[in-house]
Amino acid sequence: MISALEATDWQVCHAARFDTPADVRRIQFRQGERLVILAVGEVPVVCDILTPGVYSVDIPTHYPRAVFPVLVVAVPSPIAYLLAHGGPTRALPAVPLADPHTGGRT
Question: Helices then strands (H, E): number in the chain?
């Protein structure tokens, strides 16, 4: 059986990568997207975004038990639902990274 992580088309998403707890990144969320935190060995954490916009993310504040590196991914809601009900992340997927200045797609 293919897991939700393996079946996801990551090209429709964009992410901010965090390599250390000191990293703070910006990422843009559009209407209908959810924030998904991916870390190896952990079940994906899905968070609702109340309003579209650019957010600064500080992993230790939002996910204190994170194992680095971590990806914060903007994903369409249906994909987020599937990821939340899958198993632990075995490897971080190749997701296009957000522009470090605007937080949007590059």
Answer: 3, 6
For 1-106, strand residue ranges (E) read 14-18, 24-29, 33-39, 45-47, 53-58, 70-76
Residue 5 has a pLDDT of: 66
Q: Which residues contact 2 (CB under 8 A, 6 or more apart)?
A: none
Answer yes or no: is pLDDT of 28 > 80.
yes
| 3-class secondary structure, 61 | helix
The alpha carbon of 85 is separated from its chain's Cα centroid by a whole number of angstroms, namely: 15
How many CB atoms within 10 Å of residue 70?
Answer: 27
Burial of 104 (0-12, 13-18, 19+ CB in 10 A): middle
pTM comes to 0.88
SS3 77: helix
